[in-house]
Amino acid sequence: MDSRAKDRFGSARGQFAAMTGAYALGAFNDNFFKTAVILLAFGMEHWVMVVFFLPFILLSAQAGWMADRFPKRSVVIFAKALELAAMLCGAAGIIVGSWPLIMAMLVIMATQSAIFSPSLKGSIPELYPPSGVIKANAVLQAVVTVAILAGTGLAGHALGLKGPPWGTASFGRVVVGLVVVAVALVGVVIGLFVPRRPAADPTVRFPWRGLWDTMATLWSLRKDSLLAIILVADVFVWFVGSLLIPILSRLSLKQFFWEEAGASNLILALLVGVVVGGLIAARIPHDRRWYRLLPWMAVAMAALAAVVPFAPLVPPAYQRVFLYSLLAMMGIAGGVMLIPCESFIQVRPDPERKGAVIAAANCAAFIGMLLSAGVFFWLQSFLSPTNCFAGVAVIALVTGIFVWVALRLKDTERA
Questions:
Q1: pTM (2 decimals)?
Q2: Residue 291 in this model has a pLDDT that exceeds 50
Q3: Dihedral through CA 206, CA 212, CA 214, CA 217, nearest 10?
Q4: 201: helix, coil or strand?
Q5: Which is the CATH superfamily of the domain at 1-135+147-193?
Q6: Alpha-carbon distance 397 to 148, whole Å?
């Protein structure tokens, strides 16, 4: 690396730290509050997730437009201010026990996240060259995963804190409200340090057709066959990750009758694997043929998932280690796929279209996650949780074959 490249990486470090901090604090707050809500109203988790997913789908065109039309720093600061407004609403709701306020907070927070993501992701290629984007995304994924785990894990402890009540609200609920507002306020301050860059395309028109414009953007990606293939692989990883979470919860609680922490530990093993896979991906040489790894990682996930149905045959003393190992390796394969795919989607589009393409990719990923809920209910209706992994294996194998064939056809056309 020459001195100019080193200077560029050095000068970008502080700006990237601000972006990572803003993202991580938002992820912590989001998961901290959502988990607290789910614990207070057990059985509402599906509604909470639907409320959170919909803005990513319905508002993706507008979020992409904002990322391209305005300086990304301005959008990030606006989104963090919106997060603060959401948390003030949510804090009031959770303290006084108002479910309309709580649901309003979830809608505002989901809208904030949908707006925030394209601008932040689109800012990374403005800081680093393509080779550095993958490393930056690997670090970002690791930090955000820690924030997600911290938010999810600490919510229950916060609710359980004992102390003087505030009116009809328990001490724990007051603590949750104060924490989310404080974290959001810190996030606004950190957002002020996100790097300044001019708007990518100040003349871009507002997408009045909304979701139809997003679908048009996704359809236009067929003209760049490699970007379209990478998007399929990216959506696949998000789909499988979303599908595995309810399967693992049911596996722990309904099949093996472990304590609730058992399900959390299984998910933790998967997420740690994704982080490790992302860090491994950052060290793999990414020449023009890097994408050839993708189908093999999908096939590896299929092979590992196909072994999980044998878990009931493993002696009880070793079942957890057996599952942790398989899930961690599945996570590694997923991370090796996810981080390069996300980075490619950030780098590949023309500068004036990055926001629109990243937002459309987010929309596709969240549609995939919503569809995973239907696939889960279908699989669990006739399969045990461990045998549901056979269905995951089939999906991963079919995806791996599809990506391999699509890449071969692309290379043939190129030749």
A1: 0.86
A2: yes
A3: -100
A4: coil
A5: MFS general substrate transporter like domains (1.20.1250.20)
A6: 29
